[in-house]
User: Which sequence fits this backbone?
């Protein structure tokens, strides 16, 4: 019998979510973001599942791109941060990758490189995220420069949204205005703006290429849940021991939880070495055998404890769902003071992924 901690990945849910992104953006092409091992879901199986839906895949580095190419993925692959050092350009050429250019050192290295075939360049403009990208007042000139380079096959104008998850904030409107002021000086270039909240909440950001990540995996960055999205990851385990505690007794390390009544407790094989958030509060919702109950006590490295007092049928072997179709990861993230992105991405290698369709 193996340790019961698992992340079950529903590839049909990911396909469903990708089709939803397509339906919402009928005139856009889909650059499906699979960086960070597809937000913990497994980049290769996810890319294979999306092969007939996505037009390309976005990754954070050449190692992630190489893994996809080695698995036989022939789609366009975009390096979202471009190359970090000039010596990567030979492999970028060999792997036929699209690159982001956000800084002058990248543009110069590209112009000096000796590529076998020209590359598609996604020119990144900083419109308010203040992370990567050229300032709006210099980017038109960079677009011109790269347009004259024989190393460049296509140029795409790109920016990234800083606050699209807040539909009431002015930031996205300001970013769009800055983007369009430049885009108007660079006619006939494809645009790419929308991340998941852009796709779900801001039709004016859809443009030529959308770049959704999180929504493909079933979480909605804008609100708590989205009726059209299906959870792709189920993080689950099982009860491996049960015990009774008396009023006044504590559970696990420290005094994070002290019982004020007699309780029946289930010890579950799941801890922070699996990526479960150690700061999860008492009372966090979990499901045991399909019934709602709660986390009690401090999460330790390999185990945590749940309240079975009101679940007389539950005991050793009972299945525990931490997030998935029945426990929204958005709720867990909010209760833990984080975002779904972090929870799904940080599930560690110790937790076996199992894949299912349907
Ligand atoms: C990660 C990333 C995305 C995807 O963002 P989501 O909010 O997960 O949809 C899009 N574009 C860039 C540049 C990114 O780095």
Assistant:
């Amino acid at each position: 019998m193996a340790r019961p901690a698992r992340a079950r990945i529903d590839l049909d849910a990911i396909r469903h979510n990708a089709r939803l992104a397509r339906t919402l953006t009928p005139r856009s092409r889909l650059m499906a973001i699979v960086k960070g091992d597809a937000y913990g879901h497994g980049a290769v199986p996810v890319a294979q599942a999306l092969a007939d839906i996505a037009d390309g895949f976005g990754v954070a580095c050449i190692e992630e791109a190489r893994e996809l190419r080695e698995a036989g993925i022939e789609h366009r692959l975009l390096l979202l941060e471009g190359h970090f050092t000039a010596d990567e350009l030979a492999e970028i050429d060999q792997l036929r990758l699209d690159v982001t250019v956000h800084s002058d050192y990248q543009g110069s290295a590209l112009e000096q490189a000796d590529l076998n075939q020209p590359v598609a360049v996604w020119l990144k403009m900083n419109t308010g995220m203040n992370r990567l990208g050229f300032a709006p007042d210099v980017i038109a000139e960079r677009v011109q420069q790269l347009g004259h380079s024989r190393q460049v096959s296509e140029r795409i104008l790109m920016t990234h949204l800083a606050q699209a998850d807040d539909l009431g904030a002015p930031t996205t409107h300001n970013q769009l205005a800055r983007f369009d002021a430049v885009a108007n000086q660079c006619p006939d270039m494809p645009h790419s703006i929308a991340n998941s909240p852009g796709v779900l909440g801001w039709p004016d950001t859809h443009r030529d290429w959308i770049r959704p990540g999180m929504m493909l995996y079933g979480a909605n960055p804008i609100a708590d849940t989205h009726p059209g999205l299906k959870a792709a990851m189920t993080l689950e385990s099982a009860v491996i021991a049960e015990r009774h505690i008396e009023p006044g007794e504590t559970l696990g390390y420290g005094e994070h939880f002290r019982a004020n009544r007699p309780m029946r407790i289930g010890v579950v094989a799941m801890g922070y070495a699996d990526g479960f958030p150690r700061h999860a509060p008492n009372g966090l919702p979990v499901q045991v055998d399909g019934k709602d109950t709660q986390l009690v006590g401090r999460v330790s490295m390999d185990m945590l404890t749940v309240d079975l007092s009101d679940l007389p049928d539950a005991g050793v072997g009972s299945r525990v769902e931490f997030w998935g179709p029945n426990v929204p990861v958005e709720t867990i993230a909010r209760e833990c003071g984080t975002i779904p992105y972090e929870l799904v991405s940080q599930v560690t290698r110790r937790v076996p992924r199992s894949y299912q369709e349907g």
